[in-house]
Each structure stands twice: as structure tokens, then as C-alpha cells.
Amino acid sequence: MPTNREIHLASRPQGWPTEDTFRLVETDVPTPGPGQIVVRNQYMSVDPYMRGRMNDVKSYVPPFALDAPLDGGAIGEVVASEAPDVAVGDTVLHNLGWREYAVLGATSARKVDPSLAPVSAYLSVLGMTGLTAYAGLLEVAAMKPGETVFVSAAAGSVGSLVGQIAKLKGAGRVVGSAGTAAKVQRLKALGFDAAFDYHDGPVRESLREAAPDGIDVYFDNVGGDHLEAAISALNLHGRVAICGMIAQYNDTEPPAAPRNLAMVIGKRLTLRGFLVNDHGHLREEFVRDVAGWLREGQLSYDETIIEGIDNAPAAFLGLLRGENLGKMLVRL
Amino acid sequence: MPTNREIHLASRPQGWPTEDTFRLVETDVPTPGPGQIVVRNQYMSVDPYMRGRMNDVKSYVPPFALDAPLDGGAIGEVVASEAPDVAVGDTVLHNLGWREYAVLGATSARKVDPSLAPVSAYLSVLGMTGLTAYAGLLEVAAMKPGETVFVSAAAGSVGSLVGQIAKLKGAGRVVGSAGTAAKVQRLKALGFDAAFDYHDGPVRESLREAAPDGIDVYFDNVGGDHLEAAISALNLHGRVAICGMIAQYNDTEPPAAPRNLAMVIGKRLTLRGFLVNDHGHLREEFVRDVAGWLREGQLSYDETIIEGIDNAPAAFLGLLRGENLGKMLVRL
Q1: Do residues B79 and B108 share a domain?
Q2: Does a structural domain hold residue B196?
Q3: What's the CATH code of the domain at A167?
Q4: Which of A11, A72, A226, A303 is the most buried (most CB within 10 A)?
């Protein structure tokens, strides 16, 4: 067996993580026990929610352990198997990223067909990222045809799909915000009706210009100013699907909160936080829709791919700084 | 016709209203035109939402006009009628309170049977107040049997009904907060499992003691600290029905907002603002339930009654200061 390289959590960050938050560790690749497989990871995912897991606080998933490998979505090829249903050469999706070789029970892996789509797509448009966009927009926010949808971090992996799916499902108008002029250009190319760089002025004003008749749905990846602006812009019976609040993940002080929250009463707004885990019942419908759109060329997905396990910390830090277009992945 | 006395809005308050916000004006009672009735009001309601209508801002109901009578829920006896379906002597519910005599189109009044309940009850437990509690708890927050419910301003008109209805509908535990020791005592007499005075310490700590296993539903009448504490205490998939935010109605600066709002994601919380107007479809079920509970002696309702139109401003100011137990009414 070759040597495995993996990334450990070296220290818990206060505020922004740095390279010192991580440590590259070499280990042997263990031989699989009964029912286990060994996967040579081809791609691993870095996601904003991982920042929360670096803190030692109770949450919906346990915190990462110090001096142990991080984990997260990954896809790779089976190189050894002691499980009857999985063969060497199979491609599997699993949750032991941040390492070159993963050893896990076969029941914790899901076989995928690498001939149907590039394997990276199973970590982005066809995976949790895509389902997050689909479920948040259509189930949590219950978008209806003709409505106006606003999404923040719109050039990111989830946001860019939210905007496109909204159009494909009949939204009347789709508005996105992003952090650079290039991303704003990309959003327009993806079919967004309007897009703005949130650095160009108060979000509230940019949103009012982009959606003069207000919005019906806000898909929140950001929190903070964006959420406050959305609450002001929402029409009667508007809905907010709260997917993430990346603007505040590195705050050391309690973050500013929307000071116009009382508007939820008169406007009868619904704000709903969600995790994709609760929406697995939509998977079949999601795969059918998304595979169809991809086949017809109606849905684009961007990937920003960083090379090598040693650059995985840099990929994660770049994600937090918004350096990605679409899904941020590490090729191993 | 006798003289009518009514209360006008004399000035728009900055911060807390005062007696100078109001002006008592004497007018003649107009004679009714075709289709109109004249009502001698017996009771009028003062409600927290009226504070918002004193500001000159766009909202779900238009602001009160300066130098014109205020309005709001009232009940009284018809003393003149030019409408075929309404007779002198009928008791009607309508929206022209803040005056001794109201002249209105008969279609804007609803006849009620004064033999079924004291007429004041149509402005409290059997009226909008009761329906607000019922719809907010059972439809907006979708309380299920066995759940733990927390309600703020729990000794107020809506809150005291929320707590009792929760118990009657099978809540496992009901917790209320109020602003005096006497109110806390009253909540315990009404069957609340736990109650605390929010002046006695941080709401978050008092709530944790009162509901050590967390809460599933929060019925918010207050906003501010209470909402923040509730978000911290809510269990997975918890729901907040946002009915009012009285803590901040007189603020001149943007109010503090819950700084733990990001918890809505991991806990998959739903926060929903509502107005009773949207829930009229529940009225029949509501009346059946509430009338039954009243008949069986299972539901109590408190009323704080102030005498005379000249004391209506004091009644409203007292309401904002929390001087009422249950529904605050003015007897005319």
C-alpha cells in the first residue's frame, strides 16, 4: 500500500482560520477489515459549513476533533474491498474527504455511475450542493411561477444553481448578488435578470434597483446586511430559505442581526432555516430534473478546482474569501 | 341626538406617547344615511398594534390621520338604523372605537348575540384576541400534543389564552413570562406549568430553568431579548409564531435584534409573522372550541376595564406599560 496524506485540525481558529489551523500528516493506508473498503479519493469538497465545525460548540453535527483528520464530501475509486457489494474499480461517494485514501464501511459509501457525468459533478450539481439549491428554493421557500427570487452568494456553488433553477421553474425575475464584477458578469451569462456587486453600495439600495417591485423569495447564503435588505424588500407573504450565513462564520463577536425583523408581522413573512439532510425525499425528483436540464444544456455549473491535498487548506481559505466561481473542489 | 365624545390623534409621538398625543373632541352625532346605522358603543378595545398606526409610515394598515378620530374594535347597541337588516336594539361588533357614538354602513358591522356571553367577551376571548391566540398557536406554529410551548406577555389578553389553549390542546409543558410577580401568580392559577417575571434575570436563564428540555414552540408578543432567548431554547424543527414585538414599539432607534439568528439553520427553525386577518377560515372551529371551553369552565379570561371615553388614552398608555391583566377595555 502507498502512503496516505491527510489534513488534520491543528488548532481551533479564533476568527479567520489560517494555514496554521491545518496540519498535513502522512500515514499508512490501513488494510480494510470485514465489510470495509479502501477508496482512493479523486475529488474532495470544501464547504462553508466546515468553518462551524472547527469551533468546539454543540451544533447539528459534532465539531471536528483536534489532531485528527477533517472530513467532508469526497468521491473516488475503490482500490480494495472486503465488502460483497462493492468491487475494486467502483466509483463511490462518501464523507471521508480531506485525505488521499479513505477506509470506511461499505454501507457508508454510495456507488455512482462515472459514465453518466464527470465524477466531480456528484460533489456539485448532482450532489448535496444541487439538492440544497433545489430543496431550499422549491420546498423550503416554496417558490411559485411568476415570483421574484433573490439569492446571495449567487456565483457560489449553491447560489448559481438556485438562480438557474428558479428560472427553469418559471420565476418571473431572478436577482443575484456577488462579490466581484467578474462574478456579476457570470450571473448575467447564466440568465439572471439582474445582478450586483455588494461592494458597490448598501445592499438595500442595490436590491431596490434590481427588484423595484420587491421580492417574493430570498435564498440566504450570507446573513447580515443581505438578510436585512431582503426583509425590507420582501412582499406580502414572502419567504426566506436560510441556507447559510457565511458573512458571520468568522466573527468573534455576536453578529449584527436584522434590525427590521418586526416587519415579518405586517408582511406575514416566513423565515426558515434548513439543512439538506432533511430533504432526501426529493432526491429522485431532483436527479430527474437536473439530469434532464444538463442533457438539454439548460443548466450550467461552475467548478473551481485546486490541485493536491497539500492545497486543500488554501482551497478552504479561498472559499471563505469568496475566491471560487461555483463549486470549490480539490483534485487529489 | 345627544353629544358624541371621541378621541383624536393630536400629534404623532416620538418614542412613548403621552396624554398630549390625544385630544378629546365633542361632536354632534350625525344622522344615519341610507344603509347606515348609529351605534352607542358600550366597550372599545385598546391594542398594542395601535402604537404602530400612530407613526406616519407605510404598513399593513394605513396610519391614523392627525386631527381625526382613532379607530379600533368596539361593540355597542344600535340606536338608529337606516339599514333593512339591522334593528334598533341589536348589538353589533365593528371597527369604529375611540368614540361614544359610531355611524357606519351596516355591512361594516357584525351582529352578535348578547345573551350568549357578556358583550365585552366579543372584544376579547370570543373576538380577534381569542382568534389571534388560537390561529397563531395551532395554525402558524402548528403546535402538536406533547410539545413544550413558551409565550411572552403571557398575562396579557392574547398570551393568557395561548397558554390555556396550549394546555387544552395537549401541550406537554407551557411556560409564560410576564412583568410582575402578581401576573406570574395569575399564570400559575391559569394552569401554566412554569412562569417567570422577566425582570428577575436574563430571559435566557429564566427560560432555561423553566424549560430545561428546551421548547418546541414560541409565541412571540415581545421581540428583543425574549426572541433571542427563545431561539437559543428551541429544539430541532421548532417554530416561532411572531404576533407582536411590543418591547420595541416605542423605540426611536432601530431595536436590538436576535444575534443568534444563525441557529435557525442547524436547528431548522421556522419564524413566521402573522396577522389574524389571514386566519378567518378558522373562525367557525375557533368559536366551537372556545364556546365549549367557556361553557365547561375550562378557559378563563381576564379583563382590565377602564371607565369612560376620557380615560381611553390612559387605558392605552397603561397597556403599553403592561398595567393590564388580560384584555384591556374601555367601558363607555
Answers
A1: yes
A2: yes
A3: 3.40.50.720
A4: A226
Q: The dihedral of CA B54, B57, B61, B64: what is its sign? A: positive
Q: Give the residue from A248, A265, A269, A279 with the most B CB atoms within 10 Å of its CB, the best one to mutate.
A: A265
User: Would A183 be classed as within a structural domain?
Assistant: yes
User: Domain containing B86 — which CATH number?
Assistant: 3.90.180.10
Locate A54 and state its grid cell.
472547527
Same-domain status, A157 and A271: yes
DSSP letter for each residue of A176-201: EEESSHHHHHHHHHTT-SEEEEGGGS
Q: Residue A1 — pLDDT band, cuts 50, 70, 90?
A: low
- Helix pair A203-210, A224-233: axis angle to 10 deg: 40
Which tens digits make up the pLDDT trace of B16-53? 999 999 999 999 998 999 999 999 999 999 999 999 99
Residue A240, beta-bridge partner list: A218, A271
Query: How many domains, chain A?
Result: 2
By C-alpha distance, the chain A residue nearest B266 is A60
A158 with A223, same domain: the answer is yes
Q: Does B273 touch chain A (CB under 8 A)?
A: yes
pLDDT tens digits, A219-250: 999 999 999 999 999 999 999 999 998 877 77
Is there a single domain that holds both residue B103 and residue B170? no
Q: How many CB pairs under 8 A join A and B?
A: 96
Strands B36-45 and B74-81: antiparallel
User: How many Å apart are CA B197 and CA B215, to the nearest integer?
Assistant: 18
Tens digits of residue pLDDT in B202-241? 999 999 999 999 999 999 999 999 999 999 999 999 999 9
